[in-house]
Amino acid sequence: MTGQAEDHLDRVLAQWASARPDLDAAPMGVVGRVSRASHVLGREMRAVFARHGLQPWEFDILATLLRAGPPHRLTAGALSEASLVTSGAITNRIDRLTDRGLVTRETAPGNRRSVLITLTGEGRRVIDAAVADHVAGQDRLLSALAPAEREELASLLRKLLLSNGDTL
């Protein structure tokens, strides 16, 4: 190692080297750290969302509508696709957000089979505050990395994900 503190996975890898010196367990270190990082980051993100009274899926839908730009409206189908959930699941989620006054639902003019979901003023207020805290929290979580290291990590993770079929 290069003077860095030892983590749990370093100890696990040393145990594997002793127990199975015939195996190169180095991939376990990478995958294990990515998995542990995902857990730590996810826990912190859920805490931020909870402070704003949101579940992760609620944040996802509201943020998707916000990113869509004015008038912050998408079809239910587009939301379903962006959220990677079934049309039944998105209907249930939209119902819950409608009940909370965070989105509205209306039939699309000229296409009665299409439903438009629009961010309300209250939904915009909630998601604007949550996004600001979300970005600040992510910046804090990455504070141990210099800007160039963040870019390098993002590039390496992108390469890893794309090579494993994640094209979303």
Automatic annotation (TrEMBL):
Q: Which Pfam families match?
A: MarR_2
**Any signal peptide, and if so, which residues?**
none
Q: What is this protein called?
A: DNA-binding MarR family transcriptional regulator
Superkingdom in the source lineage: Bacteria
DNA-binding in keyword set? yes
Task: Give the InterPro entries listed for this entry.
Answer: HTH_MarR-typ, MarR/SlyA-like, WH-like_DNA-bd_sf, WH_DNA-bd_sf
Keywords, A to Z? DNA-binding
What is an annotated GO biological process for this record, any one? Answer: response to stress
Q: Which GO terms describe its molecular function?
A: DNA binding; DNA-binding transcription factor activity
From which organism does this entry originate?
A: Actinomadura namibiensis
Domain named HTH marR-type is located at 27-162
Keyword Transferase in record: no
